[in-house]
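In this section we walk through a basic example: taking a raw amino acid sequence and producing a predicted 3D structure, encoded as discrete structure tokens. The instruction is simple. Fold the sequence below.
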Amino acid sequence: MKITKKTRVRILNTALLVMAILSFVWLIITLGIAMSELVAVGHVDDVENFYSDHLIERWLFAVLLWGLTTVAYVIHSTITIWTLTQKDQSATLNDHQPISKPKHARDVEEL
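The resulting token sequence is shown next.
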């Protein structure tokens, strides 16, 4: 089974969308963990180290991952849509142009 370019583009778009959704879910889960850890901060002796070590690193990584996958999905989708619309426009323009004979066919007719 041959995979066409259009199918590969759809697969990549779907993969990027799934990645963006999963990283957003992970972002929400990380936020939930951060909130539950904030509630537990009263039980930790060194609040500043606990906050900086656990919450900020996980939160920033989750935000970075979600942001990068979302940006990648948006850029790839925009390029895909632009490319497909450009091909569609060129196809409609070429439909109205007369079809010329190949060069070698003219050479045969002249002989």
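Looking at the output, two observations stand out. The longest helix spans residues 47-95. The helical segments are 5-40, 47-95, 103-110. In the next section we compare this with other chains.
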